[in-house]
What does this fold into?
Amino acid sequence: MLNKLNEKITDYIPNILSALMILIIGYVVIKLLLKLLKTAFSHSKLDETGWTFLLSLTKAVLNVILAVMILAQLKVPMSSIITALGTAGLAIVVALRDSLTNVAGGFIVMFSRPFKVGDYVEIAKKEGTVSQISILYTKLLTLDNKAVIIPNSTVSSATVTNYTQEELRRLELRFRVPLDCDFRLAEEVILATVEAQTLALQKPDKPYIRVNAHNEDSLELLLRVWVRSEDYWELRFGLLADVKVAFDENGIAIPFPQLDVHEK
It folds into this structure.
């Protein structure tokens, strides 16, 4: 019996060695292939969002193929491999159903493309610059450089606001002036301040300002001006500061809520 066992082990050793060679060669080939694909994708017209996702998917598929080749070399019956893969797949689906939901969400993000790496977005009340999109999650970097990891299942079902997808944005600012103020003068001062800003655009519409509301203690003036998306915050902060200076120079006060107390 021992002789027969030794003979079987001896006969099986070539299969083990072949399977080991397939593992080593397969690992090297997959690594080189992924490196070549990464180089090719990075020089193609595909955006980084798309090709990083494809690389992740390709790596997973190639590893599964490699595992099947190794099992076949070890003389494991194909029917057993299929049964094992089916059983393992069912177990994985049950155990990792949340992760698989994220994978499905990743496919939705990939094909719908609501944003790409580098866009500034708001997802599920979280804002930041998209730094990575993987199969399972999307990573945002906030303005103070905090990493926010959002599962793709949440991304695919949430309302996404993309602040930088369009080339232009319209900036809206509201200014309050006293009720007894010459609001026409205030409008002229604000428009002159806007015209002095090189970042303010004259197209698709010229900047304009209108009385937007009558409050108890003030009039509200609404300014609308177009700006390039990358210049949005610089123009916003610049106008707020420059309008305050211009108001002071023209004797226009900024009203504050007041409470009058009368004694009997």
Summary: The helical segments are 2-42, 48-73, 78-95, 97-112, 152-157, 183-195, 232-249. Residues 2-42 form the longest helix (41 residues).
